[in-house]
Amino acid sequence: MLPVLARIGPITIGTHDFFTLLGLAAGFALYYRALRRDRILGPQIALISVAAILGGALGARLITSWEILDDVNAAQLPLTYVLTHGPKSILGGLAGGYLAIVLTKRALGYRLSTGDYYAAAIPLALALGRVGCFLSELPLGTPTSLPWGMSVSPEAAAAFVHCPGCDGPMHPSMLYEIGFHLAAFALIVRRGPLLPVRGDTLKAYLLAYGLFRFGIEFIRGNEVQWLGLTGPQLVLIPLVALLVIHFVRQLRSGVYRMPQPAPAIA
Amino acid sequence: MDPTIGDYIRANADRYTPEAIRAQLTAAGHDAGEVDAALAAFAAQRSAQPTSGRAFATYVWVVYGIGIAIIFLFTGVGMGLLGVGWLAAYAALGYLAGRRMSRIATPTSAGGWVGVILLAPIAFLLIGGGICAATIAVVMGLMRF
């Protein structure tokens, strides 16, 4: 485990924070490059991007806030503690960012779908961010006897209040997720938009990630909240359902059959 | 340039990706270079369209609205004089910023950019400052949930 990446004088660089920022920077660089390539970089996009950051930051905290509300009340802490010190969730970040983009576009009257410009950026950012999780968070996953199961030292496990399964080999669930994101990133970069309709490549990636993450949660080691499901799984059910409804509607409308252009004049 | 290329792009650019449009046009026998040039010209034309001042003002209020919602949500409505004062200052600044933004006639100008660049940190500062002020007030017993 490597919770602290470096100490430079009085400054401590946390591993998780470093890789989160690295992922954001890499993601925004890719996003910026895609916007420049298609020549749609402008003030409106800048506003939408600022809103995405705001919405993502809020969503990441708010979606998990209910998990610690009891603790916050018991300790008589102000509710603001949830925003400043509460757990963060990438699913909440994605949902909050997405919602903020939709609302901002409505406010600005911006009609063009920009989702595909995030389609390569998000998996790259998530892959980098998960490296930070892998190096600094426990448990890595549920116990496993598979040959690639990973163990941690008792000293590292002792640093965590709850660390079920840390006394033996665990699934490196973060590495599985990194593999998924890198594969999605490579596919999107290599092939470009996977679907002809604007924004649907991002939605297809989010749907695939939602399903993948739902499965991964069974070996992630997160606390079961209700009906044998973890918090992220409960959040994923409505999000995945919305995406499925979207694609069913798209298929029914026949939108993937593009209109034929007039043939070239010889 | 073949006008059917431009017509096809205009009719489908909002719904379909440039890659898909390019593939359709070249499959119909159009010259790839002509298609690329038409797509680039269309994108440049569209990005040059200015946003109205009213839309900018709406945006400002959305950002400030989020901030106000957060402060209310996490500190409670009946939070005492300090919190009410903070909210009043926050709303007043948002109003002034919104008015300023709405007066920018061409938001694609440098003025629009400066406004946006200044606005984002101010919004964050006010949100963060409001939360800190509320936290301090709770700790000092000045207000209760």
The dominant shape of chain A is globular
N/C terminus separation of chain A: 66 Å
Biggest β-sheet: strands ordered side by side in the sheet of chain A: 1-2
Q: Which pair has the most extensive contact?
A: A-B, 48 and 53 residues
Strand runs of chain A, count: 4
Number of domains of chain B: 2
Please count the beta strands of chain B (DSSP E, at least 2 residues each). 0
Overall mean pLDDT of chain A stands at 85
Q: Which segments of chain A are poorly predicted (pLDDT under 50) over 5 or more consecutive residues?
A: none
Strand content of chain A: 5-15%
Task: Quote the average pLDDT of chain B.
Answer: 67
Assembly form of the protein: heterodimer
Helix/sheet category of chain A: mainly alpha
User: What does the radius of gyration of chain A come to?
Assistant: 21 Å
Structural class of chain B: mainly alpha
Order of helices and strands of chain B: HHHHHH
What's the N-to-C terminus distance of chain B? Answer: 68 Å
Task: Give me the strand/helix succession of chain A.
Answer: EEHHHHHHHHHEEH
Anisotropy-based shape of chain B: rod-shaped
Strand-residue proportion of chain B = under 5%
Give descriptors for this structure:
heterodimer, A: 266 residues, mainly alpha, two-stranded antiparallel sheet, two-stranded antiparallel ribbon, 10 helices, B: 145 residues, 77% helix
Describe, in plain words, how this protein is organized in 3D:
- The complex is a heterodimer of chains A (about 270) and B (about 140).
- By secondary structure, chain A is mainly alpha-helical.
- Chain A has a domain at about 115-250.
- Helices cover about 60% and strands about 5% of the residues of chain A.
- Chain A contains ten helices and four strands, in the order E-E-H-H-H-H-H-H-H-H-H-E-E-H.
- Chain A has helices spanning about 15-35, 45-60, 65-75, 80-85, 90-110, 120-135, 155-160, 175-190, 200-215, 230-255; strands spanning about 5-10, 10-15, 225, 230.
- Chain A has a two-stranded antiparallel sheet with strand order 1-2. Chain A has a two-stranded antiparallel ribbon with strand order 3-4.
- The mean pLDDT of chain A is about 85.
- Chain B is an all-alpha fold.
- Chain B has two domains: about 5-45; about 55-140.
- Chain B is about 75% helix and about 0% strand.
- Chain B has six helices and no strands.
- Chain B has helices at about 5-10, 20-25, 30-45, 55-75, 80-100, 110-140.
- In chain B, helix 2 packs antiparallel against helix 3 (about 30-45) and helix 4 runs parallel beside helix 6.
- Chain B starts with a helix and ends in a 6-residue tail after the last helix.
- The model of chain B has no long low-confidence stretch (mean pLDDT about 65).
